[in-house]
Specification:
heterodimer; A: 244 residues; Nucleotidyltransferase, domain 5; 8 helices; 38% helix; B: 346 residues; 2 domains; 5-stranded mixed beta sheet; 11 helices; 44% helix
Amino acid sequence: MKLLAIETSALVCSAAVMEDETLIGEFTIQQKKTHSQMLMPMVEALREKLELDLSSLDAIAVAGGPGSFTGLRIGSATAKGLASALNIPVVHVPTVDALAYRLCGSAGLVCPLMDARREQTYTGIYAFEGNMMKKILPQCAIALPELAGRLNAEQSAVTFLGDGVPVFREKLDQLLAVSHSFAPAHLSRQSAASVAGLGMLYLREGRTETAAAHKPEYLRLSQAERVRAEQMQKENGAPDDADP
Amino acid sequence: MKDRTVMLAIETSCDETAAAVVVNGREVLSNIIDSQIDIHTLYGGVVPEIASRKHMEKIVPVTECALSAAGVALKDLDAVAVTYGPGLVGALLVGVAYAKALAFAAGLPLVGVHHIEGHISANYIEHPELTPPFLCLVVSGGHTHLVNVADYGKYEILGRTRDDAAGEAFDKVARAIGLGYPGGPKIEKAARDGDPEAFHFPRPGFGEGCFDFSFSGLKSAVLNTLNEYKMKGMAFSQADVAASFQAAVTEVLVSHAMEAVEKTGAKKFAIAGGVASNGVLRKAMEDACLEKGIAFYHPSPVLCTDNAAMIGAAGYYDFVAGKRAGMDLNAVPNLVLGCSEPLRRE
């Protein structure tokens, strides 16, 4: 089984090819240039350097969100284009799951942190039994105190990673009552290799979707939809107010 | 060069997800448009984030539909064309990323097309006799450009709006008089029962020899008039305001266009863009061209609105001129017409 994985959900732009158990190629870069200009040249370079026959691919794995809305769309639209032209399925890998999978095999809990703005983080809580990943808190957008409360209740050591670490580190040190550490730089950011690793598991389990059906998981409505929903709730009388 | 070039074209610059299959830039085998207008109407205008999300859901089915309606498969194609600007960046990115990946995986050359170039080229589809040079007025919700089409792919902008686009003014005035979104068709309909001379709104211009437009002053004049009526507690006729506003816009567009025809000595004149489907404007432009003794061209309404067939028409001429886009093609929201910087010659 061979798959091409792409990850453009945040600052990192990354593409990788995995063949069975082997990661045969990966490009990862984090700089200011837009993923739109970086991703396909990476894919093109992978094909060239690996002398990859595209028709040998079994699936396209993509970090499907949450993340930057624009970044997710570049990744998903690219995955759709590749998968529909090659007539192969898309494997949707949740971004936070793929981040956690970077620390596969950790003894304590693993907690990825992405800066979701609006005083929230895209996060989740994971534990590993050997190479098996268990989701204790599936990926979600929550405020830091809520996350800290969940972690304190688990009463277990935790390792954080992700681009949210520099943003939330100081506050976490204050809020946490459990022992915690932060992943080193080489393991701390998104990578297509990790998307490929989880993607390969999903592919074997048949957890795939068609190019047409695939869409990113934003975890959030657009601002216009949110404002409109709030207005409509006000007009119809908020259920919170109605309850005694 | 083969004598038959079959092109898949993709357009996602605003709120229509569109794909088409076009042969030699003129023969449309399919033209699929999925409009999001019903959703954006809830918000009184296009919401960029919602538009981008909808494009993501529709891009594959719309493209597959265009291919199957044309009776072709990817292997029958010679190239892929995609709009890369101007437009909403998030919306453009969906089409650009998808088209690049599709072209790459199918082993097809890719052409990046300017959206306005597409609108102008919509005229080629139903008028096989139309060839450059000609003048073209592009009027839509986002654009108001008076363009000299010197040759295929060679454009000189003679005038453009300095503030609101003509279609934008239609939307804003429609909202102010309670007609809602989208303004163009609603004003045209309301104006049918109105007196175009009931109000005299200004016809802004920048003097002889300057073909630029300004519609924000005209829009403000309408809003001021409405305010005056409100202050005096008087009711105004929606139909009269709509008709008078439409007459002012039409007069400005026609007078600028005909002045440009005189200055350039053009023998052919075309209109394009969403507002070009306005019947009053089309009739006035047609009459003015007739008076000048020059040929007048306009696309049918389905080709005036954002569509991908027009991108296939423009893309074909870019393709035969040897223009190709690389895999680093980006969406350029404020892309300038005639600027082919991100394109490469093979």
